[in-house]
Amino acid sequence: MIPRYTLPEMSDLFTDQARYATWARVEILATEAQVRLGHVPQDALRDIRAARVPRAERVAEFEKERDHEVLSFLAAYCEDMPESSARWVHLGMTSYDLVDTALGHTLARATDLLTAAGRRLRGVLVGRALEHWDTLMIGRTHGVHAEPTTFGHKLAVHAFAVDRSLRRLAAAREAVAVGTVSGSVGTYALIDPFVESHVCQALGLGVEPAPSQVVARDRHAQLLQAVAALGACVEQIALELRLLQRTEVAEVEEGRSSAYQGSSAMPHKRNPTTSERLCGLARLLRTYATAALENVALWHERDLAHQSVERVILPDSLCVGHFQATRAADLVAGLRVHPDRMRAAVDRTGGLVHSSAVLFDLLGEGAERERAYRSAQAAANRTATTGRPFADTLAEEGITLREELRPERFLTHHDVVRRRLEKLDERED
């Protein structure tokens, strides 16, 4: 992923140097197990532990001669060891015992970072939802005024969506945090299963129960679908805030630094650029999730068609998802809210937003539904056409209001949602 949409704590996990460091760790752990089994001398383990992780540049030099990254890594890793020790490195293993086990460890760490960013986003949403629980605003369906709600309720919807995404990420982490050290077609023909158990336990990984030669790729597809789902939840937040920032609405505004400049030509512009960027990144995440599904089906025990795809989509998905969740939390935390504009929008249509309450009261008084609906609708149409107050046009239809048209009436049972939100804020993951 390009640096613009990457945070260093995530991107550092996916550098070539980080990958080779993890590979070296797997090789050391495998040798430890072989020593315990009596297959490798203790002196060899000492030399293998003491060997430096090869520089990525050195591996690349070897790869020009070998055209095989794992063999090139092993050559670079072993070049300073005594031959008597180097001969025991990678004993009984195949390339993807190393690659996939190390990958499972890296993906678990990356998912933990993404989860932490998602938890922060959820916490910011809950906090601001409670802050604005009573901030009255208009609800919109189909982009059109519906009934009153509050800005806090709107943010609560997004908080629960992010919470569901965190649960999906937890399941996906369990799925990808596995390894296999089982040999060329996964039958443990030349390696004792104890080696796999020792390596995976030390790395905090589960074991692929029926390995072929690789870890099953539906696991990685599950992770990228979970990342894409979180991205879609962020997109929903960002899209909502974009719509609320339109000039004719202007109910919220992204926080701005003193350096902000919205347009190269129009100095007055204050564009929702952060929200727009978050929406765009969600499109990438969905594309990566589709590519991960394409990687599930491999020929027989394995082929190499998935590898080139994964080198792009796995680091990019996690880097983008992490960046997106982090910036979304920043956006919500710094959002400027305009309650006066929100209340003005509730009142803008002269009371039309109360039509459902009027109909409800008429039905409660025994009116026939179709007639009551048509009478209320006729009054609403006149208000929409003439701009006269809804209460006046209702009177012309012979409808007497049971009580004053107050938007707070729609929030009578609103605290039931608040209590659910407070429980969400208190829950430990």
TrEMBL record:
One of its GO terms (biological process) is 'de novo' IMP biosynthetic process. Keywords: Lyase, Purine biosynthesis. SMART domains: ADSL_C. It catalyses: (2S)-2-[5-amino-1-(5-phospho-beta-D-ribosyl)imidazole-4-carboxamido]succinate = 5-amino-1-(5-phospho-beta-D-ribosyl)imidazole-4-carboxamide + fumarate; N(6)-(1,2-dicarboxyethyl)-AMP = fumarate + AMP. One of its GO terms (cellular component) is cytosol. One of its GO terms (molecular function) is N6-(1,2-dicarboxyethyl)AMP AMP-lyase (fumarate-forming) activity. It comes from the Bacteria. This is Adenylosuccinate lyase. Belongs to the lyase 1 family. Adenylosuccinate lyase subfamily. Pathway: Purine metabolism; IMP biosynthesis via de novo pathway; 5-amino-1-(5-phospho-D-ribosyl)imidazole-4-carboxamide from 5-amino-1-(5-phospho-D-ribosyl)imidazole-4-carboxylate: step 2/2; Purine metabolism; AMP biosynthesis via de novo pathway; AMP from IMP: step 2/2. Residues 350-422 form the Adenylosuccinate lyase C-terminal domain. Its EC number is 4.3.2.2. Pfam families: Lyase_1.
